[in-house]
Structures are given as structure tokens and as C-alpha cells.
Specification:
Elements: H1 2-14, E1 49-50, E2 60-61, E3 66-76, E4 83-88, E5 91-97, E6 113-124, E7 132-145, H2 148-155, E8 159-164, H3 170-186, H4 190-197, E9 202-209, E10 224-229, E11 235-246, E12 249-258, E13 265-268
Parallel strand pairs: 5-7, 8-9
Antiparallel strand pairs: 1-2, 3-4, 3-6, 4-5, 6-7, 9-10, 10-11, 11-12, 12-13
Helix pairs in contact: 2-3
Length: 271
């Protein structure tokens, strides 16, 4: 009887088009994974079919391995499970890290082109749950072409010195640095490009909160401001970054140029 109940819950999960529930947040080291909660559903599902955000117009077989090329965005290991954040058709989405060597950090940068082998399989919604969800598992992942950030890190000769004006968490500081470096790698601003072309000195970045406590959930308002200066402390650019969340899940960010005289915001078109 118990097995029949599990099968029915799996079929119900399939009709939800491979959405997953919220993961319970736990502390852990980067890449750390609890193997005991990776439990696959019974073999009866081998003949079941469903759909995926990776191939939205195709009927896909559960547990069959597929190969696709995507754009790498990020890696999130803050919960019970670790996820790759990837991009395809101008949409960001998460894929479960189902590699056998999950303790190995992928070593990729935002914007890199990647090739993945993946499948649709089941996973428990949380470590303490008895509910199954059908989601996409990454079986293997390989970089096939460097993006602008990877290229920037290879050729940039200047040190980037970060100063945090306000109190941020260690995770926040890490994420802010990644996004600012991505901006530097992709910017077309002439002042910054000229500074980067000069191997002397450093780039100075001063990071502070931009929103007041009353604007915490206001869309279209930057979360932080980064004042970018050259080694002579001449201001080159005033950058605003809005971090966007769907509940607890980060799903995107928007860059703005902040006018240093009027504080007017100009959205910067950047993936």
C-alpha cells in the first residue's frame, strides 16, 4: 500500500511540469552535499513522460539522459541541495546538481557556454520531507567556450580593491563582488575601459546600501551602490545593482548607472 501511495504522488508531481518546492536552508561548505537525501523513485517511472524548461516543446522520458548547450550563470549550494543556475532562451532557471562528484566545484564563470548531460528524475522536497518532486538533474557539466568574465579574469592586470561602507553578510559581499566584476568585464564605459587599459594602479570600489528600509521590496530601485574610482580616487562610474528575488530564491539582477549629480537611474542593458 505504501508503494502505491508513492507512485500516485509521483504522477501528481509530473503533472506539475517539473516544478520543485522550497528547500530548507542549512549551513555548509561550498559544494558540500548530503548524499543520503538523493533517493530516486521506483523503476516504474522509466516509461513515464513529462516536459522541461530546457526543452519546453518536447515530450521527454523520465530518467533518460539528454545533452544540451546552455549559458552558465551561477552555482547555489545554500540549501539541502545544490543547484546550477543557467540561462536559455533569455530565461534563467535552476538545475539540481546530480553529479557523482558534487564535492568538486564546477570552476565556471557567469556567461560561459556549457554543455550538460541531464535527466528528469525525482528528489525529496527537503531532507525531512516524504514528498517527491520531479526536477532536472545535471549528470555532467563542461565548459565549451569562455564568456566575457572568464576572458576578463585571464587578461586583466589591475587589482580590484573593495571597501564596504555598510555592514553586509559574507555571502552578500561575495555576491556583490561577483556582480561588480561581471559589470567590469562587460562594460562599454570609456572611462572604465581607459582605466583598465592602464596597468598602473588599482581600481577602487566603494560599496554601500542604496535602498532605505522602506524601499526594501520596491522594484526598480537598486539594492546597493558601487562607486568606482581609479587609483587617484577620481570617480569613474556610479553603479547601482538591484537584486531580484521570487520569495527566497534569487532569480536575477539589474544594473543601473546612477547620475552623481541628480541620482537619476539609467538602466544598463546587460544579461
Amino acid at each position: 500500500m505504501k508503494k502505491g501511495i508513492i507512485i500516485l504522488s509521483i504522477l501528481a508531481a509530473i503533472t506539475s511540469s517539473c516544478k520543485w518546492g522550497e528547500s530548507k536552508k542549512t549551513a555548509g561548505n561550498e559544494g558540500e552535499q548530503n548524499d543520503s537525501i538523493f533517493i530516486e523513485i521506483p523503476t516504474e517511472t522509466d516509461t513515464l513522460f513529462t516536459t522541461s524548461v530546457i526543452r519546453p516543446n518536447e515530450k521527454l522520458q523520465v530518467k533518460k539522459i539528454y545533452t544540451d548547450s546552455l549559458e552558465y550563470i551561477d552555482y547555489n549550494d545554500d540549501g539541502d541541495y545544490s543547484f546550477f543556475v543557467v540561462r536559455k532562451n533569455n530565461k534563467n532557471f535552476r538545475l539540481l546538481d546530480g553529479r557523482t562528484d558534487r564535492e568538486t566545484y564546477p570552476g565556471l564563470n557567469r556567461g560561459d557556454k556549457i554543455e550538460i548531460q541531464w535527466k528528469i528524475d525525482s528528489v525529496l522536497v527537503g531532507a525531512d520531507s516524504e514528498n517527491w518532486e520531479m526536477i532536472e538533474w545535471v549528470i555532467s557539466i563542461n565548459g565549451i567556450e569562455d564568456g566575457k568574465l572568464s576572458t576578463f579574469r585571464k587578461i586583466n592586470k589591475k587589482s580590484i580593491v573593495y571597501t564596504f561602507i555598510d555592514d553586509f553578510s559574507d555571502i552578500g559581499k561575495r555576491d556583490f563582488k561577483k556582480e561588480i566584476e561581471y559589470f567590469l568585464a562587460n562594460t562599454t564605459d570609456e572611462n572604465i575601459l581607459q582605466c583598465l587599459s592602464n596597468e598602473n594602479g588599482e581600481i577602487l570600489v566603494y560599496i554601500s546600501s542604496y535602498r532605505s528600509e522602506y524601499e526594501e521590496y520596491t522594484r526598480g530601485v537598486p539594492s546597493i551602490m558601487a562607486r568606482i574610482e581609479n587609483h587617484n580616487q577620481d570617480e569613474l562610474f556610479r553603479l547601482g545593482i538591484e537584486f531580484e528575488y521570487d520569495g527566497e530564491n534569487f532569480y536575477g539582477r539589474t544594473f543601473y548607472q546612477i547620475d552623481k549629480d541628480t541620482n537619476e537611474l539609467t538602466k544598463i542593458e546587460m544579461q
